[in-house]
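Holo prediction. Input below; ligand is tetrahydrodeoxyuridine.
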Amino acid sequence: MEIKSFNTEFILYENRNELPAESAALLNKAHEAAQHAYAPYSRFKVGAAILLENGEIVIGSNQENAAYPSGICAERTAAFSASALYPNVPFKKIAIIAINLEKPLDEPISPCGACRQVLLEYEQKYNKPLEMILSGETGHVYVFKSIHELLPCSFHSGFLPKE
Ligand code: THU
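Structure of the complex:
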């Protein structure tokens, strides 16, 4: 018997002004996207912005529904849209930010398991690390160098039968 562990590393920035210019600009796009989220039920607006290898930026926001499970998170809206618009272009970075309409968030939010799984799929498809930038409206910003850092021991296509 052996005890094993996973080690998750991330960079902590004091605030978004410390970020490299490209990441700060991407976070601004995500913030803009969050403002246009459709979140009348949770009153929790999330924005995501994906920078692709070709320089394009694709945004997404959470889209809710009166039939609650029919809604979808900002990250998956952005990822599916990016893959639909640019089917063969690797994802380079994703910035994620949330606006809580009841109280300002001063710590980063963290994506749900389903979104991690979806983002990992594209990271593995292109075999290129996808950097993730997480932020609240103010305060610290976390940067993870790859989705794998946030979802070790994942389920992936390697388990499935070969075509
Ligand atoms: N949500 C996201 O869009 N992304 C996250 O990372 C966490 C949660 C959405 C889902 C739902 O519309 C609302 O936030 C409250 O959970």
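The first helix runs from residue 21 to 35. That is the main takeaway for now.
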